[in-house]
Amino acid sequence: MTVTGTGTSATDTETFVTPDVHDVTLTPDPAFASASPGSSVPVELAITAAGNVAENVTLSADLPSGVTINGLPSNVTFAQGETKTFPLTLNVSNGAVLNSTLATTITATIAGAAAPNDTQSTTIQLSIRSAAVVSVEQAAVKAANANHSQLAGVLSQLSDTLGQWQANPTDARLC
Predict the structure, then answer these.
(1) What CA–CA distance (Å, rounded) separates 134 from 119?
(2) How far apart are CA 32 and CA 141, in angstroms?
(3) How many whole angstroms from its chain centre is CA 32?
(4) 32-76: per-residue pLDDT in tens?
(5) Which of 30, 34, 43, 69 is the most exposed place for a label (fewest CB within 10 A)?
(6) Among 123, 125, 122, 68, which residue's Cα sits nearest to residue 102?
């Protein structure tokens, strides 16, 4: 970038070099989901080159025990400002413990960026629930999307109560 200033008696030109700014953003959709043991959860991961240069990114996943991931590329190149979306699948093992939360962290390592700005991460939380609870939760979401807020609230409460009952089947408060 060149800046020129003109005064009443002089002209001065200064050159300023804009430094490279490396950055990416990672946005999972959804960032939180319910899943039952033995199921798969589709997730879309949007990655945007948010700096002022093109980016070469290496992707990795830190997976909890009992979760695998499909669809995550290892290396991706972006033009400045470009967004790419990747369809991912998180697979939950049959041995996943009900009423637990499993966190998958996806990290982008940015080539050419200096530490500590050379990585960006996002986390996807999976709440492990029974198939019945997941079905009721999905019905609550559909009711909310159809503008049936009262039904959505009742279904949401039902899914919470079912989950609590499954975790503590002898709790008389839940009967």
Answers:
(1) 34
(2) 13
(3) 8
(4) 999 999 999 999 999 999 999 999 999 999 999 999 999 999 999
(5) 30
(6) 125
pLDDT in tens, the chain (175 residues): 556 666 676 777 788 888 889 999 999 999 999 999 999 999 999 999 999 999 999 999 999 999 999 999 999 999 999 999 999 999 999 999 988 999 999 999 999 888 888 999 999 999 999 888 888 888 988 999 999 999 999 998 988 888 888 877 787 776 6
3-state secondary structure (DSSP) of residue 130: coil
Total Cβ atoms within 10 A of residue 102? 20
Task: Give Cα 149 distance to the centre of its chain.
Answer: 26
Give the CA count within 13 Å in the CB-facing half-sphere of 138. Answer: 11
HEC profile of 7-55: CCCCEEEEECCCCCCCCEEEEEECCEEEECCCCEEEEEEEEEECCCCCE
52 phi-psi bin (left φ>0, alpha ψ -120 to 50, beta other)? alpha
- Phi, psi (rounded to 5 degrees) for 6: -120, 125
Give CA–CA dist 167/172, Å, rounded: 13
Residues in CB range of 135: below 8 A, 6 or more apart: none
